[in-house]
Amino acid sequence: MRMYDLITKKRNGGVLSPEEIVYMVEGYTKGDIPDYQMSAMMMAIYFQGMTKEETLQLTLSMAHSGDMLDLSGISGVKVDKHSTGGVGDKTSLALTPMVAACGCKVAKMSGRGLGHTGGTIDKLESIPGFHTDIAIDTFEKNVNEIGIAIMGQTKDLAPADKKLYALRDVTATVDQISLIASSIMSKKLACGADAIVLDVKTGSGAFMKQEADAVSLAKEMTEIGNGAGRKTIAVITDMDQPLGYAVGNALEVIEAIQTLKGEGPADFTKLCLTLGSYMLLAGGIAETKGQAEEMLRQTIEDGSALTKLAEFIKAQGGDPAYIYDPSLFQLAKIREEVCAKESGFLQKIVCDEVGICSLLLGGGREKKEDTIDPAVGLVLHKKKGDPVQAGESLATIYANDPEKLLQAKERFLQAITIGAEKPEESPLIKQVIS
Q: In whole angstroms, how far apart are CA 320 and each of 12, 306, 310, 373?
């Protein structure tokens, strides 16, 4: 078997066999196939596409290129949740304790943020002492005893994907649906969960700007997951404006805590209830979506979800006092209101620009080695469709650097459109694909 022949075959629109894909992935991971040949293959796939069978085999080959976590030591059905990323997306912080409080086991691998989309681990590390570098046996013990554990992805998890993604990133072959789907799902399959719920974002703050593209990606990922024997459900959700009101690491943790106290934003609470209900259905904890949502609401009303979050934080070295008293968080010293220059309705928020505001303040990374300031960010006071009066505060910016504050303020105002007409309301939950 020769890589040259496989490139020619795919370039001409042929279908690669499972054996050819295994040969290609194994050879590239080991270094036997050079970057220039794999670059040619990625470009051929970019233009010719892949069949469902090819995509599934590529995903499985990448998943098996390194460690495959064996979670058989955890009793019950293990459910994972993955988001394609957005602005203000602190969903895992509130969702996972709600689901765990219902008796569903959540064994989750999470990553750090890069660019304007924050990572779950970065948010959690706003809590002093919290860490995700735990051993697998500790991970399993915590899921068995508490119902939830979150750890960082190990270097030995899907190494083929890490190597391939780095190559795609510099060869303009990132945005191909099959390659995106296989990249995401290879890591999910390697993490060992029995069922996976996917939150696929669409809109100005999402990777998939167009809903049709988000649907295509969701279908690819659910087909891969189900084809690999994992019950997989995808929910297409709106990211045309930030989720909730808080954008920034510690600020988002505080908002998640408020949500578990029943005081959270309506859109964020709804998303947690929707995603959580599908997790409970996938885990066999509930029989209907209505029953699942009622169970999740009960965890907020009786305080069990908040208690579960505190238990989880304590088990991974964090100080649970912060969960019961969010005023302990040390937020940025400089706080400034951004006020509207005219009256009308808030017609549009360019969502990714709001994420970039947080990035400019120090709340995100432009490079992997950048250090995050957990204390900075923004809290919106208005959402799309809200009436606005001239001089009224649109948001509060939390900053530790006056120059960065000015940059973020100017960028935020450019991201906002105020007009005389109230815009049509966009549904938060757009589609469910199973």
A: 58, 10, 5, 21
By the 8 A CB rule, do 341 and 99 touch? no
Residue 118 pLDDT exceeds 70: no
| Burial category of 117 from C-beta neighbours within 10 Å (exposed 0-12, middle 13-18, buried 19 and up) | buried
User: Alpha-carbon distance 73 to 20, whole Å?
Assistant: 34
Q: Mind telling me the catalytic residues?
A: 82, 161, 168, 183, 187
Q: Is the dihedral of CA 314, 320, 323, 328 positive or negative?
A: negative
Q: Return phi, psi of residue 365, to 5°.
A: -120, 135
Task: Tell me what percent of the chain is helix, strand and coil, each rounded to the nearest 5.
Answer: 45, 15, 35
pTM above the 0.90 mark? yes
- Number of other residues whose CB lies within 10 A of the CB of residue 12: 9
pLDDT greater than 80 at residue 88? yes
Share of the chain above pLDDT 90, in %: 86
Q: What is the DSSP string of 318-336?
A: --THHHH-GGGS---SEEE
**Cα 260 to Cα 306: distance, rounded to the nearest angstrom:** 6
Task: Work out the widest C-alpha separation in the chain, in whole angstroms.
Answer: 69
Q: What sections of 198-265 are H helices per DSSP?
A: 211-227, 249-260
